[in-house]
Amino acid sequence: MDPVVALVISLSCILLLSLWRQRSGRGRLPPGPMPLPILGNILQIDAKNISKSLTKLSKAYGPVFTVYLGTRPTVVLHGYEAVKEALIDHGEVFSGRGSFPVVERVTEGLGILLTSGNRWKVMRRFSVMTLRNFGMGKRSIEDRVQEEARCLVEELRKTKSSPCDPTFFLSCAPCNVIFSIIFHNRFDYKDQHFLNLLRKLNENVAILSSPWIQVCNTFPVLIDYFPGSHKTFLKNAADTKQYFLEKIKEHQESLDINNPRDFIDYFLIKMEEEKNKPQTEFTTEALVSLLNDLFGAGTETTSTTLRYGLLLLLKHTEVTAKVKEEIDRVIGRHRSPCMQDRSSMPYTEAVLHEIQRYIDLVPTNTPHAVTCDINFRNYFIPKGTTIITSLTSVLHDNKEFPNPEKFDPGHFLDERGKFKKSDYFIPFSAGKRICAGEGLARMELFLFLTTVLQNFHLKSVVDPKDIDTTPVFNGFVSVPPAYQICFIPV
């Protein structure tokens, strides 16, 4: 047979198979736009702003609809009611983790972020219990955060009021908190190993939010056979995991099972306890992946929120002035802020909530999957189907938050100026897979921001009205634009 004819026949078969698979599933799944063979609906989704594209599709197909990312059907849940019904009312069924091929090349099915089933439950239970042993949400962790906040202030003083990019400083602070839990020590802000790890992490977050990575996740074959920024991502991740492996070996050589010093020691003790169990989840490889998850999730999300928060405070000077007035009245200048102050600072609490609501840090959440077949709102969703939950649609709901595109702390204040909770505030997701580090993140945001504002006036290098707060990427993470800021000592 002529090679050209054979190629045409092969491609035709692939196209027909793709069409058949897509059409065969459409009658059972929620409605959605007609997918193209092989490509699916990717031409209808803006890789630079996936969340905006999903909002547009929801207006045509409702709060539960199906899109095809390549040949793979993905069910999208849009709006508070649909998201709540799935993640909370049917939490166990929707607790699986959806496909994230680029990151899966790093995790290799281990860790906590992208695992499902029993492995995820075992790792999450161990992590939460161990973090509680270190006082997660209690005074012992608060002391660490307060110490790091003071170190952050000293580093900012060294800028001598000159314009600077705050990214570096705001990455070091939360990173040192998580490292004090993992390694039992913090790093100097000039430590080269520390700086190298942060550089790789910051670079990887930007890469993960880029349009190219969205394409690679849709067509995983590109990861292995095509050049691109995903290669840098994988190299950075491999280097970071090698650093953690070296730290684990150091801990193994100095381990005292009667006196665990940090998270690694607790894990190594658990490894020793289960070394004779053939199906144990506690292995060196699992520890490396778990540390990588804790490092990434415990550093970058808080760092990016702080960075975005300062940008919003630069732009909205009237908000900053009210926060500083509340700090002066409740805390004063002669002691460090503490978590007990938060209940007496409703405006500051509202500002912190509004920052997280407004920036919409993880617009489409980390992908979920259903752990078994389920009939959901009269639609049939087969086991293993990837689920996208639009956090944007909840955080920017215009009925709960009037003018949701406007930064307004009043969204979380009642008519008397008291802090007002909202069920729609779910920046950490909800249900079974809600962020395990939510308590630590909220503590860090409060203590870091109030300590900075207690000690410095914030000054922009441009007119505040000219500051653009539009994210440069709105893929996996909303990445704020680069900016310069001056920290003027009070």
From TrEMBL:
Cofactor(s) needed: heme
Entry keyword set: Endoplasmic reticulum, Heme, Iron, Membrane, Metal-binding, Microsome, Monooxygenase, Oxidoreductase, Signal
UniProt signal peptide: 1-27
EC number of the protein: 1.14.14.1
GO aspect biological process, one term: organic acid metabolic process
Record-listed heme binding positions: C435
InterPro entries noted in UniProt: Cyt_P450, Cyt_P450_CS, Cyt_P450_E_grp-I, Cyt_P450_sf, Cytochrome_P450_fam2
Major location (coarse): endoplasmic reticulum
Gene3D superfamilies reported in the protein's UniProt record: Cytochrome P450 (1.10.630.10)
Topology class, membrane: Peripheral membrane protein
Subcellular compartments: Endoplasmic reticulum membrane; Microsome membrane
One cellular component term from this protein's GO annotations in UniProt: endoplasmic reticulum membrane
Molecular functions (GO terms): heme binding; iron ion binding; oxidoreductase activity, acting on paired donors, with incorporation or reduction of molecular oxygen, reduced flavin or flavoprotein as one donor, and incorporation of one atom of oxygen
UniProt cross-references to PANTHER family, sorted A to Z: CYTOCHROME P450 2C9, CYTOCHROME P450 508A4-RELATED
Family of the protein in this entry: Belongs to the cytochrome P450 family.
Protein name listed in UniProt: unspecific monooxygenase
